[in-house]
Amino acid sequence: RSFLLHWNVNLASQSAFKLVDQPGVQLLPEYAEKEEAVFSGSVRHIYFFHMMNSEKLGEALELLGCSDMKSELRDKRIVSVSSNLFFAPILSVNPHTPAGAVPGFGEMLRDLLRPSDAASRRALDFARSVSWGRDVPVV
Predict the structure, then answer these.
(1) In whole angstroms, what is the distance from residue 77 CA to residue 80 CA?
(2) Strands 2-7 and 78-83, how do they pair?
(3) DSSP readout, 30-53?
(4) Looking at residue 64, what is its pLDDT?
(5) Exposure letters 113-136 (e unless 16+ CB within 10 A, then b)
(6) Of 34, 17, 12, residue with least CA distance to 4
(7) Which residues contact 35 (CB under 8 A, 6 or more apart)?
(8) Is 102:69 a contact under the CB 8 Å cutoff?
(9) How far apart are CA 27 and CA 21, in angstroms?
(10) Beta strands at 113-115 and 17-19: parallel, antiparallel or unpaired
(11) pTM, full prediction
(12) 40 pLDDT band (50/70/90 cuts)?
């Protein structure tokens, strides 16, 4: 099965963060470069945005927070998620999620995001420009 993630369509966030590589997860734009971007057959698209149709939002919340996702997605060859929300904590309250299977919020963010290369360069450039840590050690 392929898990495709259409994450971070917000340009400012794209410049600040990058996703940590995860086994079995591909970003949709990278997948589309190599494969056909039109999907048919056993595909499930999950849309989860802060501003969307209430009924569709309810369906996404039902799937993530209440449904037995294994059985719901079992026959899907491709599952894609388009979201601008960090929805992993919702999985922890799903009654079908085994206890302890979802890490704490801080751990999830640590394992999901890293500063982008551009953000890291900007931070280092700023630290050098103000002589950060020269007079007082940074711990």
Answers:
(1) 10
(2) parallel
(3) HHHHHS-S---SSEEEEEE-SSS-
(4) 93
(5) beeeeeeeeeeeeeeeeeeeeeee
(6) 34
(7) none
(8) no
(9) 10
(10) antiparallel
(11) 0.63
(12) low
Q: Tokens 């999907």 — which residue?
A: 39
CA 22/CA 111 separation, integer angstroms: 9
Give yes or no for a contact between 134 and 38, defined as CB atoms under 8 angstroms apart: no
C-alpha 110/C-alpha 118 separation (Å) is 18
Residue type, 109: L
Q: Is the dihedral of CA 45, 28, 17, 91 positive or negative?
A: positive
- pLDDT of 97 strictly over 90: yes
Mean pLDDT value across residues 58-72: 93
Contacts of residue 9, defined as CB under 8 A and 6 or more positions apart, other chains included, come to 82, 84
Instruction: Tell me which residue has tokens 């340009």.
Output: 11
Nearest alpha carbon to residue 60 among 36, 90, 29:
90
Beta bridge partners of 81: 5, 46
- How far is it, in rounded angstroms, from Cα 74 to Cα 23? 19
